[in-house]
Amino acid sequence: MNEQEQERYESELRRTPPAPLPAHFMARLQAAKPGPERGSRRLFLPDHPSLGWRVLLHLVAPAMAVVLAGFLVVRLKVKSEGSAKERPLAATVGLKANDLQVDQELVSSFDVVATLPNGQPVRFRCRQWKDQLVVTDKSRGVEIEQNSPRVEVVPVRFETY
Amino acid sequence: MNSGSKHELPADSDWEQWLSRHAPALLLFARQQVKCDADAQDLVQEAVVESWRRQSQNAPPPLGLVYATIRRRAIDLARRNDRRAEREAESLLDGPQCWFDAGAEERERSLLLQKAMTNLPQIYRDVLTLKVWSGLTFGEIAEALEIPPNTAASRYRYGLMELRKLTREVFA
Q1: Which of A118-132, A138-152, B91-105 has the lowest mean pLDDT?
Q2: B72/B126 Cα distance (integer angstroms)
Q3: What is the dihedral of CA B152, B153, B158, B164, to 10 degrees?
Q4: CB-based burial of residue B160 (10 Å sphere; 0-12 exposed, 13-18 middle, 19+ buried)?
Q5: Closest Cβ opposite residue B16 in set A28, A30, A35
Q6: Which residues of A fall within a CB distance of 8 Å from B19?
Protein backbone atom coordinates (compact mmCIF):
# COMPACT_ATOMS: atom_id res chain seq x y z
CA MET A 1 0.00 0.00 0.00
CA ASN A 2 1.60 3.26 -1.05
CA GLU A 3 1.23 6.55 0.82
CA GLN A 4 -1.65 7.84 -1.27
CA GLU A 5 -3.58 4.62 -0.93
CA GLN A 6 -2.95 4.67 2.79
CA GLU A 7 -4.26 8.22 3.16
CA ARG A 8 -7.33 7.41 1.08
CA TYR A 9 -8.03 4.33 3.14
CA GLU A 10 -7.58 6.25 6.41
CA SER A 11 -10.06 8.89 5.30
CA GLU A 12 -12.48 6.12 4.32
CA LEU A 13 -12.17 4.67 7.80
CA ARG A 14 -12.72 8.07 9.41
CA ARG A 15 -15.96 8.41 7.49
CA THR A 16 -17.30 5.85 9.91
CA PRO A 17 -16.92 7.58 13.27
CA PRO A 18 -17.24 5.96 16.69
CA ALA A 19 -20.76 5.43 17.91
CA PRO A 20 -22.15 8.36 19.90
CA LEU A 21 -22.46 7.84 23.63
CA PRO A 22 -25.72 6.45 24.93
CA ALA A 23 -27.68 9.36 26.41
CA HIS A 24 -27.73 7.87 29.90
CA PHE A 25 -23.98 7.38 29.82
CA MET A 26 -23.33 10.94 28.62
CA ALA A 27 -25.50 12.23 31.45
CA ARG A 28 -23.58 10.06 33.89
CA LEU A 29 -20.24 11.38 32.64
CA GLN A 30 -21.39 14.99 32.79
CA ALA A 31 -22.49 14.46 36.36
CA ALA A 32 -19.15 12.87 37.21
CA LYS A 33 -17.22 16.11 36.82
CA PRO A 34 -14.49 16.15 39.46
CA GLY A 35 -16.02 17.89 42.47
CA PRO A 36 -14.53 20.63 44.65
CA GLU A 37 -14.17 18.34 47.66
CA ARG A 38 -11.80 15.91 46.00
CA GLY A 39 -10.14 18.48 43.78
CA SER A 40 -9.12 20.72 46.68
CA ARG A 41 -7.48 17.95 48.64
CA ARG A 42 -3.86 18.48 47.81
CA LEU A 43 -0.91 16.90 49.42
CA PHE A 44 1.79 19.48 48.95
CA LEU A 45 2.08 23.23 49.03
CA PRO A 46 -1.31 24.26 50.38
CA ASP A 47 -2.81 27.70 49.71
CA HIS A 48 -3.62 28.56 53.27
CA PRO A 49 -1.25 28.20 56.22
CA SER A 50 -3.86 26.38 58.30
CA LEU A 51 -4.12 23.77 55.57
CA GLY A 52 -0.45 23.08 56.08
CA TRP A 53 -1.26 21.35 59.33
CA ARG A 54 -3.83 19.17 57.64
CA VAL A 55 -1.29 18.25 55.01
CA LEU A 56 1.32 17.66 57.65
CA LEU A 57 -1.09 15.43 59.55
CA HIS A 58 -1.73 13.50 56.36
CA LEU A 59 1.99 12.85 56.16
CA VAL A 60 2.79 12.47 59.81
CA ALA A 61 0.01 10.05 60.72
CA PRO A 62 1.13 7.23 58.41
CA ALA A 63 4.78 8.06 59.08
CA MET A 64 4.26 7.75 62.83
CA ALA A 65 2.48 4.45 62.35
CA VAL A 66 5.43 3.13 60.34
CA VAL A 67 7.90 4.43 62.92
CA LEU A 68 5.98 2.93 65.82
CA ALA A 69 5.57 -0.43 64.13
CA GLY A 70 9.23 -0.53 63.11
CA PHE A 71 10.34 0.50 66.57
CA LEU A 72 8.24 -2.15 68.27
CA VAL A 73 9.48 -4.89 65.96
CA VAL A 74 13.13 -3.97 66.37
CA ARG A 75 12.72 -3.40 70.09
CA LEU A 76 11.18 -6.81 70.63
CA LYS A 77 13.90 -8.42 68.56
CA VAL A 78 16.69 -6.72 70.42
CA LYS A 79 15.10 -7.46 73.76
CA SER A 80 14.81 -11.15 73.06
CA GLU A 81 18.38 -11.34 71.76
CA GLY A 82 20.25 -9.20 74.17
CA SER A 83 18.51 -9.16 77.50
CA ALA A 84 21.75 -10.47 79.00
CA LYS A 85 23.63 -7.47 77.68
CA GLU A 86 21.21 -5.07 79.29
CA ARG A 87 21.84 -6.35 82.79
CA PRO A 88 25.33 -4.90 83.16
CA LEU A 89 23.90 -1.46 82.47
CA ALA A 90 22.34 -1.52 85.91
CA ALA A 91 25.83 -1.67 87.27
CA THR A 92 27.04 1.34 85.37
CA VAL A 93 26.60 3.57 88.38
CA GLY A 94 30.02 4.30 89.77
CA LEU A 95 31.87 3.18 86.68
CA LYS A 96 34.69 5.35 85.46
CA ALA A 97 34.78 5.19 81.71
CA ASN A 98 38.18 5.18 80.08
CA ASP A 99 36.82 4.92 76.59
CA LEU A 100 33.51 5.75 74.95
CA GLN A 101 32.63 4.69 71.43
CA VAL A 102 29.53 5.81 69.60
CA ASP A 103 28.65 4.11 66.37
CA GLN A 104 25.73 4.22 63.95
CA GLU A 105 25.08 1.26 61.71
CA LEU A 106 22.59 1.32 58.85
CA VAL A 107 20.65 -1.91 59.20
CA SER A 108 18.27 -1.49 56.31
CA SER A 109 16.86 1.07 53.96
CA PHE A 110 13.64 0.73 52.07
CA ASP A 111 10.87 2.79 50.51
CA VAL A 112 7.21 2.49 51.31
CA VAL A 113 4.57 3.74 48.94
CA ALA A 114 1.13 4.53 50.27
CA THR A 115 -1.97 6.12 48.85
CA LEU A 116 -3.68 8.95 50.62
CA PRO A 117 -7.49 9.04 50.85
CA ASN A 118 -7.58 11.39 47.86
CA GLY A 119 -5.77 8.82 45.76
CA GLN A 120 -2.50 10.71 45.65
CA PRO A 121 0.56 8.52 46.06
CA VAL A 122 3.10 9.30 48.74
CA ARG A 123 6.47 7.69 49.27
CA PHE A 124 8.31 7.28 52.56
CA ARG A 125 11.99 6.52 52.71
CA CYS A 126 12.57 4.39 55.79
CA ARG A 127 15.97 3.69 57.30
CA GLN A 128 16.64 1.40 60.25
CA TRP A 129 19.68 2.36 62.25
CA LYS A 130 21.46 0.62 65.10
CA ASP A 131 23.02 3.12 67.46
CA GLN A 132 25.81 1.48 69.39
CA LEU A 133 27.37 2.82 72.57
CA VAL A 134 30.39 1.09 74.06
CA VAL A 135 31.70 2.15 77.46
CA THR A 136 34.94 0.68 78.70
CA ASP A 137 36.24 0.80 82.28
CA LYS A 138 39.75 -0.65 82.07
CA SER A 139 40.38 -0.45 85.81
CA ARG A 140 37.54 -2.85 86.51
CA GLY A 141 37.91 -4.72 83.24
CA VAL A 142 34.31 -3.94 82.28
CA GLU A 143 33.00 -3.26 78.82
CA ILE A 144 29.38 -2.26 78.44
CA GLU A 145 27.72 -2.27 75.08
CA GLN A 146 24.29 -0.80 74.43
CA ASN A 147 22.48 -1.13 71.14
CA SER A 148 19.45 1.01 70.40
CA PRO A 149 17.35 0.60 67.31
CA ARG A 150 16.21 3.75 65.57
CA VAL A 151 13.86 4.15 62.63
CA GLU A 152 14.00 7.21 60.45
CA VAL A 153 11.10 7.93 58.13
CA VAL A 154 11.25 10.77 55.61
CA PRO A 155 8.33 11.57 53.31
CA VAL A 156 9.51 12.06 49.76
CA ARG A 157 7.61 13.87 47.04
CA PHE A 158 7.12 11.82 43.92
CA GLU A 159 8.37 14.68 41.78
CA THR A 160 11.64 14.95 43.68
CA TYR A 161 12.00 11.21 43.92
CA MET B 1 6.22 27.96 44.31
CA ASN B 2 2.69 27.17 45.07
CA SER B 3 1.81 25.04 42.09
CA GLY B 4 -1.00 23.42 44.01
CA SER B 5 -2.99 26.66 44.09
CA LYS B 6 -3.36 26.49 40.33
CA HIS B 7 -5.51 23.40 40.64
CA GLU B 8 -8.99 24.45 39.66
CA LEU B 9 -12.06 22.59 38.61
CA PRO B 10 -12.93 22.41 34.94
CA ALA B 11 -15.72 24.77 34.03
CA ASP B 12 -18.97 23.04 33.09
CA SER B 13 -18.64 24.11 29.48
CA ASP B 14 -15.01 22.93 29.22
CA TRP B 15 -15.90 19.60 30.77
CA GLU B 16 -18.87 19.02 28.48
CA GLN B 17 -17.02 20.12 25.36
CA TRP B 18 -14.13 17.85 26.17
CA LEU B 19 -16.49 14.95 26.77
CA SER B 20 -18.40 15.54 23.55
CA ARG B 21 -15.18 15.66 21.61
CA HIS B 22 -13.32 12.72 23.08
CA ALA B 23 -15.71 10.43 24.94
CA PRO B 24 -17.01 8.54 21.86
CA ALA B 25 -13.47 7.53 20.87
CA LEU B 26 -12.62 6.71 24.47
CA LEU B 27 -15.67 4.46 24.68
CA LEU B 28 -14.75 2.83 21.37
CA PHE B 29 -11.32 2.01 22.76
CA ALA B 30 -12.76 0.80 26.08
CA ARG B 31 -15.26 -1.44 24.28
CA GLN B 32 -12.35 -3.15 22.57
CA GLN B 33 -10.64 -3.80 25.89
CA VAL B 34 -13.56 -5.52 27.60
CA LYS B 35 -16.44 -7.60 26.38
CA CYS B 36 -19.15 -6.01 28.43
CA ASP B 37 -20.46 -2.55 27.58
CA ALA B 38 -21.25 -1.70 31.20
CA ASP B 39 -17.61 -2.36 32.07
CA ALA B 40 -16.47 -0.22 29.13
CA GLN B 41 -18.58 2.68 30.37
CA ASP B 42 -17.24 2.27 33.91
CA LEU B 43 -13.67 2.24 32.57
CA VAL B 44 -14.19 5.45 30.63
CA GLN B 45 -15.75 7.23 33.58
CA GLU B 46 -13.05 6.14 36.02
CA ALA B 47 -10.23 7.01 33.64
CA VAL B 48 -11.62 10.40 32.67
CA VAL B 49 -12.37 11.52 36.21
CA GLU B 50 -9.05 10.22 37.53
CA SER B 51 -7.06 11.86 34.73
CA TRP B 52 -8.74 15.23 35.25
CA ARG B 53 -8.11 15.03 38.99
CA ARG B 54 -4.43 14.37 38.39
CA GLN B 55 -4.06 17.64 36.52
CA SER B 56 -2.53 20.33 38.66
CA GLN B 57 -3.86 23.12 36.47
CA ASN B 58 -7.22 23.76 34.95
CA ALA B 59 -6.28 22.04 31.72
CA PRO B 60 -7.59 18.88 30.11
CA PRO B 61 -5.47 15.80 30.74
CA PRO B 62 -3.24 14.47 27.94
CA LEU B 63 -5.25 11.99 25.90
CA GLY B 64 -2.44 9.44 26.03
CA LEU B 65 -2.78 9.38 29.80
CA VAL B 66 -6.54 8.80 29.64
CA TYR B 67 -6.15 5.92 27.20
CA ALA B 68 -3.33 4.46 29.29
CA THR B 69 -5.57 4.58 32.35
CA ILE B 70 -8.39 2.83 30.49
CA ARG B 71 -5.99 0.13 29.38
CA ARG B 72 -4.56 -0.42 32.86
CA ARG B 73 -7.99 -0.52 34.46
CA ALA B 74 -9.10 -3.04 31.81
CA ILE B 75 -6.18 -5.28 32.73
CA ASP B 76 -7.12 -5.01 36.42
CA LEU B 77 -10.70 -5.80 35.56
CA ALA B 78 -9.74 -8.87 33.56
CA ARG B 79 -8.06 -10.22 36.67
CA ARG B 80 -11.27 -10.00 38.61
CA ASN B 81 -12.73 -12.93 36.74
CA ASP B 82 -15.82 -13.51 38.82
CA ARG B 83 -17.16 -10.02 38.47
CA ARG B 84 -16.34 -9.92 34.80
CA ALA B 85 -18.09 -13.21 34.06
CA GLU B 86 -21.14 -12.00 35.90
CA ARG B 87 -21.33 -8.73 34.01
CA GLU B 88 -20.64 -10.38 30.67
CA ALA B 89 -23.56 -12.69 31.29
CA GLU B 90 -25.69 -9.62 31.98
CA SER B 91 -24.47 -7.91 28.83
CA LEU B 92 -25.65 -10.78 26.67
CA LEU B 93 -29.15 -9.77 27.60
CA ASP B 94 -28.54 -6.23 26.31
CA GLY B 95 -27.62 -7.43 22.82
CA PRO B 96 -24.48 -6.60 20.84
CA GLN B 97 -23.11 -3.05 21.04
CA CYS B 98 -22.33 -1.02 17.94
CA TRP B 99 -18.79 0.30 17.99
CA PHE B 100 -19.36 2.71 15.15
CA ASP B 101 -22.00 5.25 14.27
CA ALA B 102 -24.68 3.22 12.59
CA GLY B 103 -26.76 5.75 10.69
CA ALA B 104 -29.44 4.35 8.43
CA GLU B 105 -27.23 4.31 5.31
CA GLU B 106 -24.05 3.34 7.01
CA ARG B 107 -25.39 0.61 9.24
CA GLU B 108 -24.14 -2.29 7.14
CA ARG B 109 -20.78 -0.66 6.62
CA SER B 110 -20.43 -0.01 10.36
CA LEU B 111 -21.24 -3.57 11.26
CA LEU B 112 -18.81 -4.97 8.69
CA LEU B 113 -16.09 -2.64 9.92
CA GLN B 114 -16.77 -3.70 13.50
CA LYS B 115 -16.58 -7.35 12.46
CA ALA B 116 -13.30 -6.74 10.67
CA MET B 117 -11.87 -4.90 13.66
CA THR B 118 -12.94 -7.75 15.93
CA ASN B 119 -11.00 -10.17 13.75
CA LEU B 120 -7.81 -8.13 13.99
CA PRO B 121 -5.24 -9.05 16.64
CA GLN B 122 -5.65 -6.71 19.59
CA ILE B 123 -2.17 -5.21 19.25
CA TYR B 124 -3.11 -3.88 15.81
CA ARG B 125 -6.64 -2.94 16.79
CA ASP B 126 -5.47 -0.79 19.70
CA VAL B 127 -3.03 1.20 17.59
CA LEU B 128 -5.49 1.62 14.71
CA THR B 129 -8.23 2.84 17.01
CA LEU B 130 -5.99 5.37 18.70
CA LYS B 131 -4.56 6.64 15.43
CA VAL B 132 -7.59 6.68 13.15
CA TRP B 133 -10.51 7.46 15.46
CA SER B 134 -8.77 9.21 18.36
CA GLY B 135 -6.25 11.14 16.27
CA LEU B 136 -3.33 10.43 18.59
CA THR B 137 0.25 10.81 17.43
CA PHE B 138 2.56 7.80 17.55
CA GLY B 139 4.21 9.39 20.59
CA GLU B 140 0.88 9.57 22.40
CA ILE B 141 -0.01 6.05 21.31
CA ALA B 142 3.32 4.86 22.66
CA GLU B 143 2.51 6.48 26.00
CA ALA B 144 -0.99 5.02 26.10
CA LEU B 145 0.05 1.48 25.24
CA GLU B 146 3.44 1.58 26.95
CA ILE B 147 5.34 0.58 23.82
CA PRO B 148 8.10 2.37 21.87
CA PRO B 149 6.88 4.87 19.23
CA ASN B 150 8.53 2.86 16.44
CA THR B 151 6.62 -0.23 17.50
CA ALA B 152 3.42 1.78 17.45
CA ALA B 153 4.19 2.98 13.92
CA SER B 154 5.00 -0.47 12.56
CA ARG B 155 1.96 -2.02 14.24
CA TYR B 156 -0.12 0.69 12.62
CA ARG B 157 1.19 -0.11 9.15
CA TYR B 158 0.67 -3.85 9.54
CA GLY B 159 -2.70 -3.33 11.15
CA LEU B 160 -3.86 -1.04 8.39
CA MET B 161 -2.87 -3.58 5.74
CA GLU B 162 -4.64 -6.37 7.60
CA LEU B 163 -7.76 -4.30 8.08
CA ARG B 164 -7.76 -3.37 4.42
CA LYS B 165 -7.72 -7.03 3.46
CA LEU B 166 -10.59 -7.71 5.83
CA THR B 167 -12.68 -4.77 4.62
CA ARG B 168 -12.32 -5.19 0.86
CA GLU B 169 -16.02 -5.76 0.50
CA VAL B 170 -16.82 -2.64 2.56
CA PHE B 171 -14.42 -0.20 0.93
CA ALA B 172 -14.37 -1.47 -2.63
Answers
A1: B91-105
A2: 13
A3: 110
A4: buried
A5: A30
A6: 26, 29-30
